[in-house]
Amino acid sequence: MKLFLIRHGQSIGNLFLDEDLPDSPLTSTGLLQADKVASFLGRKSVTRIVSSPLIRAMQTAKPLSDLLSIPVEIWMNLYEYREGPAFYSLPRKEIQKFVPDVMLPEEILEPGWSCPGDENRETVENRAKSIVEQLRLSTDDSIALFAHGMLIDFLIREILQLSNGSNIHFVQANTCINCFDLNENEVKVLSLNQTEHLCCH
């Protein structure tokens, strides 16, 4: 299976790092980045698209979904690593204004959904392990997964079986692409933090 891990496009929260904006939408730059990553991945035979439930990730996934006519699956466990307190999302109808036509899961209730907080390294490592196990159960040929910089860092370390406590980190630019070939007994790293698609259109 080929796996693409894509960080979301530039969000309002990326511009105001001193503020706690855990579920901010994309900026105009981020929306353009999402279109560019869709154009690039549209040629990569993607057969399944999954996304974090946070607005910026769903917005980044939507152009590829529209291009390939493949629905975006929302995995509720793909939210960003968060050491701060839990927060409540926008109401379901408000979320749908940002991502029309994306089928929101029933876990996103009419008042919204509660994103866990107070996470530590151990809990996010366990979550990353569960996500990778979930991916390995898939029979799809090619999956595009849209998520967040810190979570993707932990996912990559889980895929590469780096020991817990490792000080190796994988920097993630907005809409960067990380690509792996996942086989039963082998992992091939095809790209890390790839951003060429942002400058070629």
Automatic annotation (TrEMBL):
InterPro entries: His_Pase_superF_clade-1, His_PPase_superfam, PG/BPGM_mutase_AS, PGM_Phosphatase. GO terms for molecular function: phosphatase activity. SUPFAM superfamilies: Phosphoglycerate mutase-like (SSF53254). GO terms for cellular component: cytosol. Pfam families: His_Phos_1. This is Putative phosphoglycerate mutase. Transmembrane segments: none annotated.
